[in-house]
Amino acid sequence: MEPWSRSAADLGRAIGAGTVDPVALCEAMLERIEGHEHGARVYARLMPARARAEARAAAARARGGARRGPLDGVPVSWKDLFDTAGTGTEAGSRLLAGRVPEADAEVVARGARAGWVALGKTHLSELAFSGLGLNPSTATPPGAHDAGLLPGGSSSGAAASVAWGLAPVAVGSDTGGSIRLPAAWNDLVGFKPGWGRVPGEGAVPLCETLDCAGPLARTVEDCALVHAVLAGEKPTALEGASLEGARIMVLEGMPFEGIEEAPAAAFEAALERLAAAGAEVVRRAPPQPAEADAMSGTIYAGEAWAIWGDLIERNPGVMFEQIEARMRGGEGLSAREHIGAWRRLRALRAGWREETAGFDAVATPTSPILPPRAEGLEGEAYRRANLLALRNTRIGNLLDCCGVSLPAGAASCGLQMLAPGGAEGRLLRLAAAAKAALG
């Protein structure tokens, strides 16, 4: 099996067994990226000197029996909003062109200490403020099933790097669904921890009260191993994970409004497989998600404009107009409106925890729509598609959940499961059992 077809954990085990050399693996991945027809659409920039140095160090540790962890020597791609010392970090925006940080983001530093080999920086939606992955300012990565389909965002290049075999695993970020949505549209596993579980220092911000880093991979095991390093925790043990006796609440109502036929059918078929594996599936429609979503513009745009408004005003016409328009949604918001929305959101979060306390997870389709094409996606059509694509995943961010998206059994269709922030280990075990049941 070619190395780009193997999971990160499998490659890590092979390095430990001495059957895969980290240096040869690194060279094979760099060569594949540089020669790939979509390499430049996936990676904003490679880091070959750093990758080779890290691979040589990993190989020496492997020979000396001093590996630092299960992914020591495994190549990883990084979304281009995590600072990398001496290498540009521009967050998909010409506003930040030429920005070269002096130090690694904390999560990048943790990856380096764990022995990961940093291949390069992947493209993303501009300033991470779109779920579609369309970025005419830098590049729009290709969708997994059709290079003309949008890959989902904002971790668009992160998803494409794994889906196209240009990295075994990727690190992205999720503020409203930016890991889980592209994972769903590219048939990957995407994991978002609860807010605050992973440090944000050195990551270009969108909404610091909601931003969080997490993995996109082929397997739940890979996500668990990557998350453990990012969060500074021991990896969740997935052995023996089972759906027997698990209680899963299907969130009725809003997640199914405007849903397309394929995601709806894939979701229902996935639920049947989970039930057949022993899960109890209960359907409920508590009110908190719809009310929280109605305030999302105030919360997201208000904070994003506070962070980026001055720079945007100093550089008129530089941004992709659709992203700038979203940012400007926060331009006229008052502190009273923004603080009031957060006060109400905290009450909704408390109510949501009470409503879902008797369940192991809440399930929805990851996205109610399939990936669209970029052609003709302008104005109101862009706005509608973007808001709809992220609607179900936003629930997890607004209501302070950890979340995972699993392939639901049909192309570009995902099954999302949410649990309270802090229950990451429990959710990963449930996801591992669900992935096994889904096939």
Q: What can you see in these coordinates?
A:
With 439 residues, the chain is an alpha/beta fold. It folds into 2 domains: 3-231, Amidase signature (AS) domain (Amidase signature (AS) enzymes), CATH 3.90.1300; 247-294 and 322-438, Amidase signature (AS) enzymes (Alpha-Beta Complex). It is built from 15 helices and 11 strands. It has helices at residues 8-17, 22-35, 39-42, 48-63, 106-113, 156-163, 180-185, 220-231, 261-276, 288-294, 296-314, 321-328, 335-356, 379-398, 424-438; strands spanning 43-46, 75-79, 117-122, 170-174, 189-192, 212-217, 247-251, 280-284, 361-365, 401-407, 414-420. The protein has an 11-stranded mixed β-sheet, with helices on both faces. Strand 2 (75-79), helix 5 (106-113) and strand 3 (117-122) form a beta-alpha-beta unit. It starts with 7 loop residues before the first helix and ends with a helix. The model has no long low-confidence stretch (mean pLDDT 98). It comes from Hasllibacter halocynthiae. This is Aspartyl-tRNA(Asn)/glutamyl-tRNA(Gln) amidotransferase subunit A. Keywords: Transferase.
Key terms:
439 residues, alpha/beta, Amidase signature (AS) enzymes, 2 domains, eleven-stranded mixed beta sheet, 15 helices, 13% strand, Amidase_CS, transferase, transferase activity
Describe the structure concisely.
This protein has 439 residues and is α/β, with parallel strands linked by helices. It has 15 helices and 11 strands. Helix 5 crosses helix 8 (220-231), helix 8 (220-231) packs antiparallel against helix 15 and helix 11 crosses helix 12.
